[in-house]
Amino acid sequence: MNHPHPSTPRLILLNAAVALTGVLALLGYSWLLVYQPAAARQLTAVIVINANIALILLHPIAGFLAWLLLAPYAPFLPFDINMPAGVPDLAFVRTVGGFLALYLLARVARRRQQLFALSPVEFAIPFFALALLLAALRSNLGWVTATQLAFDSYLTPLLAYFIARQLIDTPQRLRQMTNALLLAATIMAAMAISEQLWGVTLFRNTGTQDFYSAAGVRKVGALLGNPAYIALAIAVVMPLALARALETKRPRRRGVYLLLILLLAAGVYLTYNRSGWMAGALALLPLLLLAPRLRRPTLLTLLLAGGLLIASWNAIESTPVGQRLTAESPIDYRVGALETGLTILRSNPILGVGYASFGRIAARMGLRGTGHVFVLPTPHNSYLHLAVSGGLVLLASYLLLAAALAVTLIGLARRFRAGGEASPFYLLAGWACLLAYFAASAGFDNNFAIYANILFWSIMGGILSAAQGQSARSLPSSISSHA
Fold first, then answer.
1. DSSP-H helix ranges across 348-381
2. What is the pTM of this model?
3. Residues 6+ apart with CB under 8 A from 249
4. I need a labelling partner for 45 at 20 to 30 A (CA). Which of 136, 274, 306, 477 fits?
């Protein structure tokens, strides 16, 4: 049966109406930019958020990856919808991430999508979330502010973990997510390199410190505001690039990944941050040591590098690297913060003194921060921050979460061995991410490194679901194993 087609005049009129509507919308937006910039920013945020939500509805994985790529730019571009005083802003990261998580839950509830296979991590998350909420309710910042801060710092990354667990359920989809994360990490590394070497700064808050006082090198802060946050965000992505280099059979592609790893490593190195350097080393060494054909060359390289470091230490000590490695003032501050934090913790060791309450209490006790005088001191230790905020209950629940990740990785490796397959390289990369993230978190406050937290938990969620999917489907080991 033939369906009637619109006549040519009607089609012309329809196209003209669409074009006219577009022109009028563009003119209206241009007028707002000139005469009502605040309204234009609000409208831009509405457009960006709704565009990402529309992409989620059309293609959830593409919407998720777009969210991951755009998230670090939200503080600098008009992506957040400002709300009246007393009402939390509709931030891009919070709004789009929350919508995507709710959308996936709705699909599961309506049986349009199957829930991922549960692991020990999912059973540990509620304990941490409840302990975190209890700490927020007792904060000296007020429960509304503290709850919002805790949600952004810890629960939004866990939403990203849930989203990745639900969407990234095959090695092929993990490769798609890896491509997006490598792009994000490459941009961050390029920004860190350009800022350190040439002073070209993009997307940086003007109030942050520009130089390390001891070493005389720039304290890079492009995009994420702090060298530790930048280094960690790059470091947790590096194992995925190395896994790609190890699993590919094409020499040219392997060379591209190795060059990419060098670029990312240069970005981490030029942050001149000791916690970042440790994260970068732990991001690569476990994978190199666990890969059988690379274990011996890696050990020989480490021995050679250690010998060269010892032999040339006198020359290195006077360089910016040596000065950063031997700088004592950051260590002295952390020792003082640790002593102050433990004193605070003794007042309520079980439940702590409330989320993010360390700064005001420590300032009254005489502790001064290392930056501007008007900035409250912070613990510079993520575990001390959690202990003071929520006592041993919150700290134990966080360590339980880390242990659950490790137990899950071990269980997945055993499933592959039971099936006669070697663990895929991306599963080994999960160990590297885990070690890099939780070890480096002892040297700074990861509650401020929101984007690095989102990347880490997205990676872990994707790796766990991809490994579960691959082991269940018995994919050939030649695709992604080091057999």
1. 358-364
2. 0.90
3. none
4. 136
